Automatic annotation (TrEMBL):
It is a single-pass membrane protein. Keywords: Acyltransferase, Cell membrane, Membrane, Signal, Transferase, Transmembrane, Transmembrane helix. This is Glycosyl-4,4'-diaponeurosporenoate acyltransferase. It holds the Pfam family CrtO. The keyword Cell membrane applies. Its main location: membrane. InterPro entries: CrtO. Catalyzes the acylation of glycosyl-4,4'-diaponeurosporenoate, i.e. the esterification of glucose at the C6'' position with the carboxyl group of the C(15) fatty acid 12-methyltetradecanoic acid, to yield staphyloxanthin. This is the last step in the biosynthesis of this orange pigment, present in most staphylococci strains.
Length: 178
């Protein structure tokens, strides 16, 4: 019951703050696109933490078409990874969540990739909805900030988690065999 009330409260706060953002900042601006993405990241992260789901859906399993990440390498995931290192994001993440070499820590990291992917996946579709509204209301060109930031801040992070998770799983499986 308590978690349900917290979940509902967070959802209402997220909707309210998102509507306030749309009211106070022009929806066709870079500022709106940037603020919307980070506002949603805060709220969606809070919702995912409250859910405490084990995230066992087969959606998170590696698919045969992913070919051990080759498709993601073709889409430029290695460039995106290097960009994260260059801007310092990797240091920030590793400081808050250091990678340890024990099995329990690797299992935690594996689960964290699922939570991160789910969060960015949800945000991607919310921002896409805003993108469509802005394109219809202000024109396609005015929606490009939303589109570009959605690709950069949500789609590529989803791809990154899908690229990393099977690699982490292989390390976990190798450790279990020892």
């Amino acid at each position: 019951m308590k978690n349900s009330l917290i979940f509902i409260s967070i959802s209402i706060a997220a909707i309210g703050s998102t509507l306030a953002l749309a009211y106070f900042i022009r929806m066709d601006s870079f500022e709106f696109a940037w603020a919307l993405n980070f506002l949603l990241m805060i709220w969606v992260s809070a919702l995912i933490e409250i859910m405490k789901s084990p995230l066992l859906s087969s959606y998170f399993d590696e698919k045969t078409w992913e070919r051990r990440g080759k498709i993601y390498e073709y889409l430029g995931i290695n460039f995106f990874r290097k960009m994260l290192v260059l801007i310092g994001w990797e240091k920030v993440i590793r400081k808050s969540t250091p990678v340890e070499k024990n099995a329990e820590a690797l299992m935690g990291l594996h689960h964290q990739t699922k939570k991160s992917e789910l969060g960015h996946f949800i945000i991607f579709f919310i921002v896409l909805a805003f993108n469509i509204v802005v394109a219809m209301r202000f024109g396609l060109m005015k929606s490009m900030w939303l589109f570009g930031l959605n690709i950069l801040l949500n789609l590529y992070p989803v791809i990154l988690q899908r690229y990393n998770r099977p690699r982490i799983a292989r390390v976990i499986n190798m450790r279990r065999r020892k």
